[in-house]
């Protein structure tokens, strides 16, 4: 006897991609994620390509992965895809010591983040 197959967490017209353990603070990643929420994937890719933020390159790769998952794994139409979810989560934080003058210490926090992008096929309304 084997255990039951886990049901799919997304609906049939959705596909997802994850970016985990990326070395940027969740606050900075959320600025870029907020920029593309609800956008058509073509406009989102264009916005990420010309964004001055450093993390936009990794978010663009994750969005391309979500589009490829939608096309190859779930046979969705690329022209109808929209970014429906872009959630950011906090991962671990490395804590380092910064030595100050007069025998004092400071703390340096090096945060990591997670990103989950969900694209879904939306029917265009005329």
From TrEMBL:
Keywords: Ribonucleoprotein, Ribosomal protein, RNA-binding, rRNA-binding
GO cellular component terms listed in the entry, alphabetical order: ribosome
UniProt keyword Ribosomal protein present: yes
Function: This protein binds specifically to 23S rRNA; its binding is stimulated by other ribosomal proteins, e.g., L4, L17, and L20. It is important during the early stages of 50S assembly. It makes multiple contacts with different domains of the 23S rRNA in the assembled 50S subunit and ribosome.
HAMAP family for this protein: Ribosomal_uL22_B (MF_01331_B)
Database matches in PANTHER family: CHLOROPLAST 50S RIBOSOMAL PROTEIN L22-RELATED (PTHR13501), LARGE RIBOSOMAL SUBUNIT PROTEIN UL22M (PTHR13501:SF8)
Name of this protein: Large ribosomal subunit protein uL22
Organism: Candidatus Bealeia paramacronuclearis
Gene transcribed to yield this protein: rplV
């Amino acid at each position: 006897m084997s255990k039951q197959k886990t049901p799919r967490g997304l609906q049939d017209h959705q596909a997802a991609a994850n970016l985990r353990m990326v070395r940027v603070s969740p606050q900075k990643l959320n600025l870029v994620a907020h920029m593309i929420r609800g956008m058509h994937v073509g406009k989102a890719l264009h916005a990420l390509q010309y964004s001055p933020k450093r993390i936009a390159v990794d978010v663009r790769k994750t969005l391309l992965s979500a589009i490829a998952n939608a096309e190859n794994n779930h046979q969705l139409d690329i022209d109808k895809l929209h970014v429906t979810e872009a959630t950011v989560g906090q991962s671990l934080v490395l804590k380092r010591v910064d030595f100050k003058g007069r025998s004092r210490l400071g703390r340096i926090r090096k945060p990591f983040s997670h990103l989950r992008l969900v694209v879904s096929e939306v029917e265009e309304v005329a």
